[in-house]
Amino acid sequence: MFLMQDRSGEPVVRLIEEFLTDRATRKPSPHTVQAYRRDLRTVASIAADEASPPLPLDALPLEALRPRVLRSAFAHFAATRSAASVHRAWSTWNSFFVFLVADGVVAGNPMPAVGRPRAPLPRPKPLRGADTPEQLLTAVARADGRQRDPWPQRDLAVLALALCAGLRLAELLALRVASLAGRAGERRIDVAGKGGRPRVVPVEPELDQVLADYLDSCRRRFGSRCVRPDASLLMDRRGEPLRRGGLQYLVDSCFRRAGIGDRVPPGARLHALRHTFATRLAEDGASAAEIMRLLGHVSLASSQAYIEVTAGQQRAAVRSNRTHRVLAGLLSG
């Protein structure tokens, strides 16, 4: 028989840390863990401030989080935040209470009694300009004399993986040498996707050659240790695995060297390369299901957004034809 634990008077912050420890077994990114903690503690802080009398966050007991209290806290939370942020926080709190129910700490989940907005699908943010990806690749493929230690093979490999395989930042960092698998002509990348969902992305001969050239340059720089199957595929200039900040700086540096900073959507940076990959798939006739498989989307709606954007761009291009203005003049005459 499953027995409930009487932990109603326990501080919420302690249970939050237990939840985050449980989530750690799923290997979320540090950024995701920070977002979980921030959403949980922020809403809990609002609830503590609204208690009568107000309580320090560390003294807020679990039993205080009744549906009425949570509704009020979320209303205040939502007042200065976007619908997407509120939806994300609601999902985090829902997962928190699901964990508490499963652990026998609470009898039920109060979150269905707390309203949440529909999360808008994010709009794709590809690089602007029809030939911008080609400009970017051309610029980084040659050594830049202004760099202290130019490594064009590595820089080109990073950009090509994002533009030709649509990999996320965390997926790039998780790649190992063994992730590049298969015989010549049948190459593939085994990707450890978001949420632990694996996927396979085909590698065309051009990308295969870029990666081969990069691995050859690794051998020349650091010896055979860097091409062991379990070695990180992407290295920094010291021969260590490339990290999040280093990868972001590398991509920003490539944008600057190519002189295309004004064509990169704000807040996109590396993700703009993934969006460019998906947008070009849609432009070339790929279906939403194909885009979904290649990008590792959970929802078909996320993939459909690229097709809808492409259709809108096509309509705008057709509309720009000045013949339409002639027709408009004839019709109004």
TrEMBL record:
The keyword DNA-binding applies. GO terms for molecular function: DNA binding. Residues 122-319 form the Tyr recombinase domain. Keywords: DNA integration, DNA recombination, DNA-binding. Gene3D superfamilies: 1.10.150.130, Intergrase catalytic core (1.10.443.10). Residues 10-101 form the Core-binding (CB) domain. The keyword Transport does not apply. InterPro entries: CB (IPR044068), DNA_brk_join_enz (IPR011010), Integrase-like_cat_sf (IPR013762), Integrase_catalytic (IPR002104), Integrase_recombinase_N (IPR010998), Integrase_SAM-like_N (IPR004107), Tyrosine_recombinase_XerCD (IPR050090). It comes from the Bacteria. Pfam families: Phage_int_SAM_1, Phage_integrase. Transmembrane segments: none annotated. GO terms for biological process: DNA integration; DNA recombination. CDD domains: DNA_BRE_C. This is Integrase. It comes from Salinispora arenicola. The gene is xerC_3.
